[in-house]
Amino acid sequence: QEEEKWDFVLVSDIHEVGSEKEIKRKKFLDELSKKGFTIKKIEDEKLFYGVRAPEQIFRKYQWLLRNPDSRLQAPDTHQDVPVTTRIRLVNFILQNTVTPDLEKLHDLMKKKVFEATFPLHEEEEIREFLKEKWARWREIFCQQPIEKIRCYFGEKVALYFAWLGWYTYLLGIAAVVGLVVFVAGITVFNSSQVSKEICEASTTIMCPLCDQQCPFWLLSDTCTYAKVTHMIDNEGTVLFAMFMAIWATVFLELWKRQRATVVTDWDLYRWDEEEEELAMELINNLQHEPRRYQHSYFRSTIILLLVLVMIAVLIGIAHALVIYRVMATALFTQSTFEFLHEQANTMAVMTGAVLHYITIVIMTKVNRRVALYLCDLEKPRTFSQRENNFTVKIFTFQFFTNFSSLIYIAFFLGRINGHPGNYVRIAGKWRLEECHPSGCITDLFIQMAIIMLLKQTISNMMEYLSPWIRYKLRKQQQHLNERRTMLGEEEEAEDPCKRQWLNNYQLGEVNIFSLFDEFLEMVIQYSFTTIFVAAFPLAPLLAFCNNLFEIRLDAIKMMRLRRRMVPRKANDIGIWLQVLEAIGILAVIGNGLVIAITSDFIPVQVYKYTYSPCMTGNSTDVDCSTGYINHSLSVFRIQDFEPYTKPGLALTGLHRRYRDYRNADDYSYTVQFWHIFAARLAFLILFEHVALCVKLIAAWYVPDVPQSVKNTFRERKHRNLRKELRWVMAQEV
């Protein structure tokens, strides 16, 4: 006996006969029966309803969405509808079937009339192939079977994995270049003239790092920190930042070509989503009137204001993290533990990064709720429009959640804190943080390294272990129930569908945003990989390693741990492409600002070519950056300290040093400060214009659509026109 095929399963609690929920359920199922659906009921601990759509629905769909050029020929012939199309069409009808009480399935699920709806994982050859050859950790370095993924999960999921595979493939190139830059930095670990000067500055006494119980300290005490800074902050980093700006453009242009090739093979290049939506609406209800496009400036203004309020809240959280670091530095410097006392600043940055990661985890959930609420206020016309609106909002919120703290460290830390004798304070009490004499870039490096490592280890473990543990617990419960049944009385022969439906029901739940979550995770990672890559050259390598596992992790979740996703048709990755292009522009701006403002690259170059021994003397055998550290430190008179600060005992002398370009008499900015400021500005303008020009040239040089795709369309048009002309000539004869 051939096994029955069912398109969808609806699950409900067993309600009392005559109860409101039972009546609502019956009304909904009656509406489906009127549309010709076959319904099968199986009772267990829950009620299961298998539904199968009549074949005429699929014939209507095929006829309405046929190629218009071929409608003249063979109107009676029809091919089998792919399983993905069946599921998508049945899901659309289920979601848009209205009961006499004017309730849809979504409303009934809110009222607990139905608990779950899902298509089935069928025991078919393609599923076994994907489970064995794709959803396995051992296949981590193997190519993905995109065509098979499309046949089982639909085009949208297939395009996600095609994009993720392509991104990971090209990320390998960026990872190698980043690793070379980092290794080159390690080779100059001990040879940098600037770090040598810091290590030898055993007579340079610095101003204390906090107000109470902080002693004056020797610049040479921070020798290791200086070496690490110059391992990251060197000429190679500038070239790598420029390379990544070009890489981001080339990656997107090559992806557009790859996508054009893939969707042409699927015959979807010129697919019209709106036409498909209207066709399904008419198949479901012939009396359906299309919803009109509408726009309300009042509603848009309200939503814009609410988005700005949310962004202000997220920036406020970044300020709270700044206050935490300021207070943590003050507490650590007063600690009795020698390690905490000596490394107070570094420990404050590291604990601040962990706290930042925790806020990211919490605010991700909050951001989702707020973005959904704002989408409901907008009342979008279609699901695609709703998804696009949601994407823009959630990405904006997530961007500020992830990057506000990094932006502060990169561009404000050590630049708005005042100077000895006139520090900027929080609540008039705590001093803002300062940069190390060798620069702020190491703080940014530490922050990015910790957040990326935590996101890629803890988050991925939770993403995999959570559904895996739930799956195992449900399996164990099922075995216990089966054992009890075997020990009890002999039951009548079990319906073959029952076990399959139960097994599918026990898998993890999926929702309309399951794939969206995967995209969002990867796009945020892409932001980390490109925007501040000048401070963290290892970001592409970490992302590459993570993605090798991410592909298989997502595959295992979809094939083994979760219910089957409702397939969705698509011919591109949607609004995510515009988001990625925006990130590419932000990457140019971000890296330009990091090199110009955060890095010490510009001050060192200004010193080399304006104030160094190479410029002022005749000596050619001296390193041109000799004397840079002494030149970059200003002098402060001890008697000018604020009266309520209590620095530790002085070592010797009446003057101390601090990192800034200020005059010793009135603490105003020196000429050197304005030289460096002008050079930073000039570099920023030059870097961004050159990088953007290179991006535009790369975008022009690599066509979006390959010539082979254009030729395919031209040949197809030619063939269809010839066929049509022959048909007309045959009619005349």
Question: Could you explain how this protein is built, in words?
Answer:
The protein has a 4-stranded antiparallel sheet with strand order 2-3-1-4, sandwiched between helices. It contains 25 helices and 12 strands. The chain is mainly alpha-helical and 733 residues long. The two termini are 51 Å apart. α3 (83-96) crosses α11 (273-284) and α7 (155-187) packs antiparallel against α10. Among the domains are: 8-119, no CATH class; 703-732. The model is unreliable at 68-77 (pLDDT under 50).
List the defining traits of the structure above:
single chain; 733 residues; 4-stranded antiparallel sheet; 6% strand; Anoctamin; cell membrane; transmembrane; protein dimerization activity
